[in-house]
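Explain this one:

_____
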Amino acid sequence: MANGDSRTAAKILVVDDEPQIRRFLRISLSANGYRVAEADGGRAGIEACARERPDLVILDLGLPDLDGQEVISAVRATGTVPIIVLSVRAQEYDKVEALDRGADDYVVKPFGIAELMARVRAALRQRVPDGGPVRPVTAFGVTIDFERRVVERDGRGVHLSRKELELLFILARHADHVLTHAELLRAVWGEAHVADTAYLRVYVKQLRQKLEAEPDRPRLIVTEAGVGYRLRTGAP
């Protein structure tokens, strides 16, 4: 359960045009110790995000004034707050678009409140820590900007999938330190996948293809044999 102290409990912004959904989520989230703010439309949600500075956003896509996909892009352009989409849209292309625009998770209505609470806790664990801006990391021609959620190589933007971005951010936040396979898998894929090292190899290879000048001779993301990976910012 979240911290029940109203001064320190995470604040969650619910953006949904259905009053009954907002009421249900307000009761459920409050019962789990969270503070709750609400907005009934897309533009109101964007304004509330800037005003309330929530720790997490729960967002419906079917809003009356602005499609939720556009809200994701607007919110993501100004910060790293986790976004969980809660929508009746179950098509794969809707999920892919939401995740590519920067959503952290996608839950289809109708939903189980226990599962949603678990996803809220997971998203909050992975958010960028509070306490001021996180400075970008620059190494070997690559710039990783946490606040803008932007990655550039030689001054040009690089498109990364959500999981690729999460993995790169974890490595960059611990730049020049070795992170074990288990630590990376737990942080990006969760406890259930802590032994799935094949996931890690595939995504590290994809990141190297996109970021390294010579992917087969990586300088940025290096392998620590038998242990894990390290994002290097300088000489070995």
Remarks:
- Residues 3-7, 128-133 have pLDDT under 50 and may be disordered.
